[in-house]
Specification:
The chain is an all-alpha fold. The protein contains three helices and no strands. It has helices at residues 13-25, 31-65, 72-90. The radius of gyration is 28 Å and the shape is elongated.
Length: 92
Amino acid sequence: MGKIEKVSVALTPELASMVREAVDRGSYASTSEVIRDALRVWKQRAEHHDETIAEIRQLWQEGLESGPATDGKVVMARLKRRYANARSSKHA
């Protein structure tokens, strides 16, 4: 595991009880193992959050660079006309 640094952590009674129960059930060998696992999960969640934010920023920028928006009603009307014309030309 490498170098270990001891850190004191204050937990609410509820959280302390949950940690002890996890050890008592045999899910973890020690309270330190529970806390290390919780910190690994927290780190993964934080990394995922950062990746998600970066992706949203990239998509936002792509949207800005794609040009001005067109009103949805205008686009739908245009599509309906196009498909109506395509259907009528097939049956003609």
